[in-house]
Amino acid sequence: MKSGIHPEYHETLIRCSCGHEVKIGSTVKDLHLEICSNCHPFYTGKQKLLDTAGRIEKFNRKYGKKKSAESNQESTAPN
Questions:
Q1: Nearest one of 33, 31, 27 to 13, comparing CA atoms
Q2: Domain ranges, residue 40
Q3: CA distance 12 to 16
Q4: Is residue 5 part of a domain?
Q5: Residue 27 neighbours by CB under 8 Å, 6+ apart
Q6: Is 50 a member of any domain?
Q7: Residue 12, exposed/middle/buried by CB under 10 A (0-12, 13-18, 19+)?
Q8: Secondary structure of 26-77 in HEC code, one letter for each residue
Q9: pLDDT, tens digit, 9 for 90 and up, residues 47-76
Q10: Of 18 and 74, more confident
Q11: Of 1, 44, 67, 69, which residue is the least packed, with the fewest Cβ within 10 Å?
């Protein structure tokens, strides 16, 4: 290894806004994170899911009437 070209390696304390702290080795002395795996909704299971069923029902109400009206006419039409 050449001397003088590599950054210094420090023991670093990483702090999250939730209060979780981790010690690792890094070239940066101290890090502050906004979110970590302890407070991220994906990892904690508190993730909010979109109501896709409501959107599908809205679509069917809006565009499904035409199909149901056409099917009613076909069923009542004489053969």
A1: 31
A2: 10-69
A3: 13
A4: no
A5: 7, 8, 9, 10
A6: yes
A7: middle
A8: ECCCEEEECCCCCCCHHHHCCCCCCCHHHHHHHHHHHHHHHHHHHHHHHHHC
A9: 666 666 677 788 888 888 665 555 666 666
A10: 18
A11: 1
Residue 76 in domain: no
Token pair 């904690």 is found at 44
Q: Which two tokens stand for residue 20?
A: 């979780």
Element (H, E) at 25: strand 21-26
Position 75 in a domain: no
Task: In whole angstroms, give the CA distance from residue 53 to residue 72.
Answer: 26
pLDDT digits (tens, 9 = 90+) for 35-50: 887 887 776 777 666 6
For residue 39, what is the domain's CATH number?
4.10.80.400
User: Is 12 in contact with 29 (CB distance < 8 Å)?
Assistant: yes
